[in-house]
Each structure stands twice: as structure tokens, then as C-alpha cells.
Amino acid sequence: MKGRLISIAVLFSAIIFIITGILYFSGKQANSADTKAEQIVAINEIEQLARLGEYDKMSAKSAELTESLRGAQVVSGGSTGLFVLCGVCILFVIIVFGYIYFAILKPFNKMEKYAQEIAKGNFDIPLDYERSNYFGEFTWAFDSMRREIVKARSCEKEAIENNKTVIATLSHDIKTPVSSIRAYAEGLEANMDSTIEKREKYLSVIMKKCDEVSKLTNDLFLHSLSDLDKLKINSEDFELCDFIKNTVNEIAAEQNDVHFKMPDFTAFVSADKNRVVQIIENLINNARKYAKSDIDVFMVKSDGSIEVHFRDYGFGIPDEDMPFIFEKFYRGGNCGNEQGSGLGLYIVKYLTEQMHGNILLYNHPEGLEAIISLPIIR
């Protein structure tokens, strides 16, 4: 591009010089022929006047001849002015093309080289830009894009590291209940369950630990998904109140820590039953793990929606954790030594929103209340 611009500037300068030369030589030849003819005529007249002895007229004619010679010099001076004008025009061409190069082409070449570096994957080179040139805003936008790509790659790298950490943690957590299951199974094999009460206790612990393994493997499966949109939502119409009652009773089992109050109304929704069960399990298990208190579940019917309330009587969530509590892998500051992956509330929020509902959390003086809202179809 630079060589092409120089070639064009040289071509323009050559054209101006050639035109100036043509005008100069054409004018010089015409003026020279006319001046020479006039001078010959004047000299002949002077010779005739000298023969006739008319010296006064001869002097006047000599003066005219002198003026003619001076005019020729003036014409020659005008030709010099023509060359000066030619030089000025060439200088103007050089200045214009120089400005085009430094103001447009040079910044563009810089951008081209920078784009090549970006294409190679070299995102660590900053791009210096000046808003005063024609590419100032474009250069700023290009550099901003580079910074966003660097930021996105950094977040991706951090997410990969988090994935490795969480998967390693979940894999380690699975070992604990598996060890308990093996220990109690060996006890049964060794006939250590000498009484019915001991046998029931062993079986109860084994089933409980199996449930823990199942939950951990579910977390591991969900975490292994690159995007939660791979979780399919198969909605169907059903009556929610009876469904919640049956689900809560199954989750409560014989622990008697979950209390469901059956409402005096019915509410039909369009949702995925399996995902609703998953939401309820997450919320109840979270309350059991962190609040370690009884859990009240009740339903409220509002304008166009049904609310399912889960109220525990623990310590709630610290206020400083509330803005981030639904983020993936985030765990509150009061989780203590309780094991977890920080996926529960994130999954609950995602699944609820996929079924066109929402979730809200409220801290009470005693405990936390989670409210799931779903639209009613009738």
C-alpha cells in the first residue's frame, strides 16, 4: 500500500512537470518568433532612417528596439514563474499524499498487523490507539473486543479448574458413604445383627448411605453437563397440591421433620413432574443439612400463580451471601463443615425458570423461607 501511494504521488508530480514544460516551451517559441520578427523590422527601419539622415526618428526607433528587448526578458521572467508554480503544485501533491499515508494508511497497516496477531491467538499484545485519527474509535472498539476475549478465556479457564475441583470433591465425598455401606454390610455378613433392632438399624443406615451416594452421583452427573440446557423439560398438566403432598411424604419418610399443610384448594399447572420432585428434594435436603430443624411446607394461591413455601428454623443465609446464593458453585459463609458442591440452589433456580416460574428467598429472625412460584393454568 505504501509503495502504491508513492507511485501515484510520483505519477501526479511527473504529469504536472510535463504540462509545465509543454506550456513553457510552446510559449517560449511563440514569443521568440514574434520578438525576432519585430526586431528585424526595427533594425531595417533604423538602417533606412540612417541613410536618409533622419536621426531623430532613428533615435526613437532605437528606443522602441530597446523596449522590445526588455519585453523579451520579462517573458523569460514569466517562464521562471511558471516553473515556480510547478514546484508549488508538486509540493502540494507530496503534502496531500503524505497526509493520507500518515493519517489513514499507516494506522490501517498497524491495525492489519494487529489483526494478524489476534488471528494467531496472541491476545496479550495491547493496541495503542489515538482518538484523533480516523481509526481512533474503531481501534478502541477492536482493543475492547480483545480485552473481552481475554476475560472470557480467563473465565473459561477458571470454570474448567472449578469443574476439576468440584468433580474431585464429589468423587472424594462418595467414598465416605460407600465405606459406611461396606462396614455395615460386613456386619450383616458376620451376623453382628443379633437383634431385630440392630438389623433394622443396619439396614436403615445402609439405605440412608445409598441415598447419599445417589444424591452425590446426581450432583456429579449434573456438574458434568457443559450446559444445563441439556436438561430436558417435559411439561404436562397435573394437579399440584396432591402431587406436592405425596412427594413431601416420600421425602420425609420416617424422619418426621417435614410437615406439610394440605391447602383447601386445587391448582393445576403445566410442569415437569420429575423436575418438580428434584426442586423439592433440593430445598428440603438443604434445609435438613444447614438448618437442622423442622421444615414446614405449605401452599398459597395468588393471582394467576401458586406458591409453594419451604420454611425452616435455622440460622438463615447471611445478608452478604444473598446476592450470590444462586450462582453456580457458590456456598454461603455459614455452611460450616457440611459437604456440598454449591449446585443445589443454582439448579433449583434454573429448573423453576425453565417452567416459567421463579424462586425467592427470605430471611426471618428465625430461619429461612424459600418460595417457589409456578403459573396456574386453571
Brief overview:
The chain is of the alpha+beta class and 378 residues long. The chain is 64% helix and 11% strand. The chain folds into three domains: 2-119; 158-224, Helix Hairpins (Orthogonal Bundle), CATH 1.10.287; 229-375, Heat Shock Protein 90 (2-Layer Sandwich), CATH 3.30.565.10.
Word description of this protein:
The protein is of the alpha+beta class and 378 residues long. The protein has helices at residues 2-52, 55-119, 136-189, 196-224, 240-252, 273-291, 344-354; strands at residues 236-239, 258-260, 268-271, 295-302, 305-311, 358-363, 368-375. It starts with a helix and ends with a strand. The chain folds into 3 domains: 2-119; 158-224, Helix Hairpins (Orthogonal Bundle); 229-375, Histidine kinase-like ATPase, C-terminal domain (Heat Shock Protein 90, 2-Layer Sandwich), CATH 3.30.565.10. The protein has a 5-stranded mixed beta sheet with strand order 2-4-5-7-6. Strands 1-3 form a two-stranded antiparallel ribbon. Helix 1 runs antiparallel to helix 2, helix 3 runs antiparallel to helix 4 (196-224) and helix 5 packs across helix 6. It is elongated and about 170 Å long. A hairpin with a 4-residue loop joins strand 6 and strand 7 (368-375).
